[in-house]
Amino acid sequence: MHHYFKLRNFNQTKTSGEVFYSPSIFMTQIALGMAAIGRPLYINIKTADSLQNPDKSALQAHALDLLDTAYQLGIRHFDSAPGYGIAEEILLDWTRKRNYSDIGISTKWGYIYTANFEKNPEQHEVKEHSLQVLKQQWQYSQQLLPYLNMYQIHSATLDSGVLENKEALGELAAIKKTFHIQIGLTTSGVQQNEVIKKALTLTVEGKPIFTVFQVTYNLFEQSIAEVIELLHAANATIIIKESLANGRVLRSQTNDALLKTLAAKYNVGKDAVAMRFCMDTLKPAFVLSGAATVKQLEQNLLANTFTLHADEIDQLKKMRVDREAYWHERKQLAWN
Hints:
There is one protein chain. The chain is of the alpha/beta class. 37% of the residues lie in helices and 17% in strands. The protein is built from twelve helices and 14 strands. The protein has helices at residues 56-72, 87-98, 131-141, 166-179, 192-201, 228-233, 248-251, 256-266, 270-282, 294-301, 310-317, 323-332; strands at 12-15, 18-21, 29-33, 77-79, 104-109, 111-113, 125-127, 148-153, 182-186, 203-204, 207-208, 212-216, 237-241, 286-289. The strands form four sheets. Strands 3-4-5-8-9-12-13-14 form an eight-stranded parallel barrel, surrounded by four helices. The protein has a two-stranded antiparallel sheet with strand order 1-2.
């Protein structure tokens, strides 16, 4: 039995052919992130209903079914990447079969999937922020047009040098101008805020390059709140990823009584409480569901059925941990 939700309306403003989502008037939507459904292994905590050891054809069939269900449940934005195995291939197949006119897609460049569906690969993925990889991956990703409206650097960091790579930045600016799509980046690690501040200063021909910021934010890692006003002031489109901290929120014993109390009060799971926290505190354009199954997706979407009170938000904010400790633990998570 599926729970169906009315799609929330939102306003758009257009500038020079580009669509910008105003955070002051935008009601957060839950979007579907495809990191866990385009490859058999992912850095996440598996649940009992997760697909077990799928081959490529099984994974593709499962993902297509999940995309159909997501659309039926009201989801209209989908986030992908070449680093997510065959996620882009699946999404391309799905859009061509369904031919919907009301969906949006964001994808990325900078990670190359190398595991090739092996159960114990020496390497799952390779990160490379070079002009060559950008051109190569854009060649495939642009097939997602006209649904593709956001193109992002995958995990931009200060040490990757991508924010100093004038050739890559110029290429991104050209893609933005030619195809009228927003250019953005995703952030991870202890230097998220520094990456965002630097990216906001970068321009080509006097115009900002980056207007989309997909950031890690959850009950444990709340440091993005320190720069949220800068993003709002720039009228940036904000996307929240890892709202469940790769599943750690569901397994944590820290403040578990509080999460259980709120989940019982609103008749939802702890996952919906954690996602609602992101929605109510930062008011982003999108919060990504990383659901790998229909059941997980339905549970995540229950975050649309309530809002948290100010005192409940204040209590949940106390679940934050030191960012260094958070990212150290994140690095220890296994692919499964």
